[in-house]
Design goal:
Length: about 325
């Protein structure tokens, strides 16, 4: 008989946490019990899991006793405070915050790329930021086929990475503009509605932002190749869901666009939509709510030797966070059967 697991979701009322709960139900994860946890501010709320409305409990360190797997989808501060203790109680933590991603002893996992790292965990497994999940999915199979040397990555980020407050703030700004009112928001550094902001995270001394350096380092860790050189530019765009990425790749071995197309078509987690003459290429409006990373506009990069340019779109909350975290858990229980 298959084992059924006690599952906790920390941050169950966040944008990412709610999607994790939804995905667990949709994928029929073998959960005997789901325990939604949040900070005191969410007390009294419930989450929908399958056909149940489950009350959200206030997170406490003692609640992880007897829990098999805990998804952390709250803040970095909450992960730092509660995840190590949960792991010590025998619970495997799957953390979607930045807290442990670059820790040497913590595997950073995109299951399609490096699922073998899951078995080496010591109680905590980290899920990369959604933009790094998206980049690694595309770069991983190309790296295996031809060894990636250099990547220039421009990523156009939906505001949902910043949570429900950002989604609400964008909606309010759009309404303000349509009603001829001045836009105001404490969430974004500038007007977000009908604008793009070339800043995600604080700027560092090297003129990159912290998030730009993060996506580079996280992607290299997932690819298990510190030699890959990555330059990232992250732009916040007025989209609710889906990150879009323009990717320029230089490889050791030359690959034709047709070969790249074939490699990606046969790789799990990726769907190729690439017929520009017919107007077919990935668009956020169609990718929202989908489980794959969509890739198109695959062509030769004319600026360099052995270069490929392409375009990808992925739902940052669903694919980049919830699906990735739940698939880590699915691999984990398959190992432990």
């Amino acid at each position: 008989m298959a084992k059924h697991y006690r599952i906790a979701v920390v941050g169950a009322t966040t944008t990412a946490g709610k999607e994790i709960v939804t995905v667990l139900g949709e994928r029929d994860f073998p959960a005997a019990e789901l325990i939604p946890l949040a900070t005191q501010g969410s007390l009294g709320s419930t989450v929908q899991y399958r056909d149940e409305e489950i009350p959200v409990q206030t997170i406490k360190k003692t609640l992880f006793q007897g829990v098999d797997i805990a998804f952390f989808a709250s803040t970095e501060k909450i992960s730092k405070e509660y995840a190590p203790g949960a792991a010590k109680q025998g619970c495997t933590v799957i953390d979607t915050t930045p807290c442990f991603r670059m820790d040497e002893g913590v595997p950073l996992v995109v299951p399609e790329i490096n699922a073998h790292r899951i078995s080496g965990n010591k109680g905590i497994i980290a899920s990369p930021c959604p933009a790094a999940v998206q980049a690694a999915l595309v770069l991983g199979p190309i790296h295996r086929a031809a060894v990636v040397l250099k990547v220039v990555l421009s990523t156009y980020q939906a505001v949902s990475d910043m949570g429900d407050t950002a989604l609400e703030a964008l909606t309010e700004q759009i309404a303000d503009l349509f009603n001829f009112r001045e836009t105001r928001s404490s969430v974004f550094p500038h007007q977000m509605a009908f604008n793009v902001i070339p800043q995600v995270g604080p700027f560092l001394d090297n003129a990159y932002t912290s998030d730009e350096m993060r996506i580079a380092e996280e992607t290299k860790k997932v690819l298990e190749s510190s030699a890959v050189r990555i330059s990232a530019t992250m732009v916040l765009v007025p989209m609710y869901y889906c990150h879009s990425q323009s990717v320029n790749i230089q490889t050791v071995k030359k690959l034709s666009p047709d070969k790249v197309r074939s490699i990606l078509k046969h790789f799990p987690g990726i769907r190729v939509e690439d017929n520009p003459a017919a107007g077919i290429y990935p668009l956020p409006v169609y990718v929202t709510g989908k489980d794959e990373c969509f890739v198109g506009r695959i062509r030769e990069d004319l600026s360099t030797e052995n270069g490929i340019a392409l375009w990808s779109v992925s739902d940052n909350i669903r694919k980049g966070t919830a699906i990735n975290a739940v698939r880590i858990a699915e691999h984990l229980i398959s190992i432990n059967r």
